[in-house]
Inverse folding.
């Protein structure tokens, strides 16, 4: 769970967080997840790229709401994985938005997808309770 800050420019003229901002929230939470779970990654040689992303908007978030994002990996393949995320109100626990992403590990040196490192797989399985 990562607490999120609503910035002044995140709110549109209707007084709620604009739908496009949620993707920034999801990116911030992804970055925190990988920094916490998959330590020691050489980001100069490896990348994680989004190949598909879908979001559902379930409720409004307005200025003054306390929100956070849950992030977890639900499936790991050979070179890709599925990431589920939720932005929710920390006072009411109401889910405001859900996002599902398919992401691919990418070798920046050889410019191609790369197999999932076993150390990452083990760390993620332990963190998210996957088998």
């Amino acid at each position: 769970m990562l607490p999120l800050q609503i910035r002044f420019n995140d709110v549109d003229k209707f007084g709620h967080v604009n739908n496009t901002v949620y993707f920034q929230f999801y990116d911030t939470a992804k970055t925190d997840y990988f920094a916490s779970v998959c330590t020691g990654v050489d980001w100069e040689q490896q990348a994680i790229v989004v190949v598909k992303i879908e979001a559902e908007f379930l409720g409004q978030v307005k200025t003054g709401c306390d929100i956070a994002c849950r992030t977890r990996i639900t499936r790991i393949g050979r070179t890709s994985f599925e990431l589920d995320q939720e932005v929710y109100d920390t006072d009411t626990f109401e889910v405001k938005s859900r996002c599902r992403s398919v992401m691919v590990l990418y070798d920046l040196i050889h410019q191609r997808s790369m197999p999932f490192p076993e150390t990452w797989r083990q760390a993620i399985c332990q963190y998210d309770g996957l088998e």
In short: Strands lie at 2-4, 46-57, 67-76, 80-89, 95-107, 112-113.
